[in-house]
Amino acid sequence: MMIRASQLSKRERADRQRGMTVIGMLLLIVAIAFVALVGMKVIPMYIQYYSIKSTIESIRKEPQLAQMSTLDIQNAIQKRFDIGYVNNINARDLKIRNERNGRVIDLVYNDERELFYKLFVVLKVNEAVPLNP
Prior knowledge:
133 residues; alpha+beta; 3-stranded antiparallel beta sheet
């Protein structure tokens, strides 16, 4: 009989202790909101970065790239930037230089977005992309 009474009281305690407190739920909501806010600011930055990279990759695959001048390459990149809604960098900002192996594009830019009052997220890109296929 005593064993049964102790088992019953454990069950009753387990049934009563289900769920979350209000403070726990508020903390969970604040954490989810913060992650969502960071995601809404950071994900578009990376999408734009990969759009720029894919534009440069598409230029690398052009069959007449060897005959194109620096200005022609910049114009082709700018047209693709306009179509892809890339607005934080211009093709004129990309430096195209000649090296032994061929041409290289220096991709250097900063993308800065404000999370909330005086707290920013910054994406710094500084890379050299070879144009030879």
